[in-house]
Amino acid sequence: MDRVVVIGSSGQLGHDLVEGLRAADRFEVIALDHSRIECTELASARQVLLPLKAQTIINCAAFVRVDDCESLAREAFAVNAVGALNVARLAAESGAKCVYISTDYVFDGGKDSPYLESDVTAPINVYGASKLAGEHLVEQAAPDWSVVRVASLFGKTGARGKGGNFIETILARARKGEPLKVINDIQISPTYTRDAAQAIAQLIGGDARGIIHAANSGSCTWFEFAKAALELCQLAVPLEAVASSQFPTPARRAKNSALASARLQREFAITMPHWRNALGAYLAEKGYLPS
Questions:
Q1: How far is 85 from 59, CA to CA, in rounded Å?
Q2: Is residue 226 part of a domain?
Q3: Is residue 36 one of the residues assigned to a domain?
Q4: Under 8 Å between Cβ of 137 and 183
Q5: 46, 50, 130, 229: most buried by Cβ count inside 10 Å?
Q6: Residue 245 lies in a domain
Q7: Which one from 105, 127, 192, 282 is the annotated catalytic residue?
Q8: What is the CATH number of the domain that holds 254?
Q9: 3-state helix, strand, coil in the chain (%, to 5)
Q10: What is the pLDDT of residue 232?
Q11: Catalytic residue at 288?
Q12: Which residues contact 173 (CB under 8 A, 6 or more apart)?
């Protein structure tokens, strides 16, 4: 039974990865949250990782507060790039495969269709730049590596660094009867962490390498995503589609960050559910659907 270490196990994706890998009954899973490992400190991370003798190390640890990254670039690069490099080096030392979880933010949004693994990267904010740096460093430092890009995650545990997720915020406000204004000019690939975790578990079993996208199929705007959630939960509140210019943020956002999971289907025969089906499954898991 292969031993898999999941770093960043308390986050949305990390939590579901631990559950999914354990449910697969093929792996011995060791979960490491931030209290157990500090990826930015090579020496202390070495003391934690090397004795574990893992076959695979999955690095979900990330500085994910996109807007804060603009003013805290040093911290963002420390976690997303230097931390990724440290984990990759230690994976190489221990002979383990290194799986680095990355993001749709590595693209600039200028494409008219979902991004493929082969598309040119060009991040437009600090967060995206720090994650892309992490990708390159992992590729250089780990002989056996893969980068799995995910996008617009939603899962039952919420994002630890963000205090929840988009759907939770929308539903909480809707239950209070608050009118909602949601951006309708940015294309995304909403991705259920349980689906992404299951895909990653299959990839590990299949010994995948290189850059792979693992996002739910289809794309939509944030407005369409919110509208679908409200309809499924049968919550009727005023919902207005607005331009992103009405909500200026410190970090620039790509107009299109949708991902196409082409390699999953073509090379590994893994089909990601459509985001609408994934949303329904998530709402059912949370107990939000009307009886």
A1: 10
A2: no
A3: yes
A4: no
A5: 130
A6: no
A7: 127
A8: 3.40.50.720
A9: 45, 20, 35
A10: 97
A11: no
A12: 180, 237
